[in-house]
Amino acid sequence: MKHHDVIIIGAGAAGLMCAASAGYRGRDVLVLDNAKQAGRKILISGGGRCNFTNQKVEPNNFLCGNSHFVKSALARYRSSDFIELVERHGIEYHERDHGQLFCNDSAKEIVTMLMTECEWAGAKVQLRTEISKIVKLDSGLFELTTDKDSLTCDSLVIATGGLSMPKLGASPFGYNLAKQFGLKILPTYAGLVPFTWHAEQKLKFEPLSGIAVPSTITAKDGTQFSEALLFTHRGLSGPAILQISNFWQPGETISINLLPGVDARAAIELELANHPKQSLRNTLSHWLPKRLVEALFDENLLNKAMNQLVHSELEQLAVELESWEILMNGTEGYRTAEVTLGGVDTDELSSKTMEAKNVSGLYFIGEVMDVSGWLGGFNFQWAWSSGVAAGLAV
Ligand code: FDA
């Protein structure tokens, strides 16, 4: 039976970060993962360029049952700390909208950096290892049975992520283990995920697939995001939709402003005054793609000249442009979701160390717990910050 000070299950973003932090403290660390490759989600993230953090990270960029929980870890390991690490490894990066930071070259550089950090810190990473049983011994140690051997450790860190993208190895391992040790799990949902059409909507909107427009989207609870909206074969996507999906419940409508930053009533009045004989179709086609205009509005209405439209029609037009209320069928689910909402209840964990309050030596980090970030590098920042918080404590 081999003993390690610390065993971390999950060689993803949070697990590797935790391993390096604990290793640098002189702890004997082993990371186990059942995958063939470490950091698989990092490799495909950000379109292969990994949006590894955000210039401006605030606690309100995260959804969590306890809104204060994230504060301590985010303050101890900031996005500026991760940026400094990236710079130390000579990785070139750039900033996109809303402070999002991406590698110039490839997400591979982030995985290489984390593996190098683990190596320098003396933390070992063992892949292709199935863990079949974990028990806590009377001595306080954890005993793990794997398909290779049996191991014991003082501290056990669970970094197995959420349920999103099962084809990348996502599994309920962390939730099952939390349950085994009596920790509460909050219901899980797919987050940062595209919406799907109802059958009749699909007939109407599927031909618009590929069209992207600026938008401001509002959820029922008033949360609002101004970003691109993308029509797809299956439904609606794009950053605005992914963001709003975190705040959406089945059966709720979303409200889409197709002319963000424009006063639709004033713009229509101006067109009416300046081009009274122009058809509504041509007027709207100055603002929106023609195919979208034709899918949204009635043919007879579009053929009318601006000065043939009665007041109620102009008013209705402004309402539909500024707050198109749409009831989507659902989401694409875990198959394409970037994150999992819900998970291990943070009330069960110390916000400083991520250790379970009632099971000494057991830690949960990263996405497995009930913390999910907005789109924009926040989920990786949570993996880094929670990983370091545990790495400094184990
Ligand atoms: P992560 O999922 O990274 O790692 C979990 C590890 O546990 C994996 O290596 C897995 O193999 C292992 N594991 C699972 N079950 C196991 C078991 N039974 N036994 C052993 N090992 C097991 N975020 C962001 O901030 N910027 C971005 O650009 C993106 N882009 C993005 C794109 C796509 C397509 C997805 C799906 C997700 C993103 N994300 C993102 C989200 C981000 O990838 C995610 O929040 C973090 O990877 C979470 O890190 P964790 O370490 O918690 O889990």
TrEMBL record:
A Pfam family annotated for this UniProt entry: HI0933_like
SUPFAM superfamilies according to UniProt: FAD/NAD(P)-binding domain (SSF51905), HI0933 insert domain-like (SSF160996)
Key words, A-Z: FAD, Flavoprotein
Start and end residues of each RsdA/BaiN/AoA(So)-like Rossmann fold-like domain: 4-391
Names of the cofactor(s): FAD
Protein's recorded name: NAD(P)/FAD-dependent oxidoreductase
Keyword Flavoprotein: yes
Membrane-spanning parts: none
Residue intervals of the RsdA/BaiN/AoA(So)-like insert domain: 189-339
Keyword rRNA-binding recorded: no
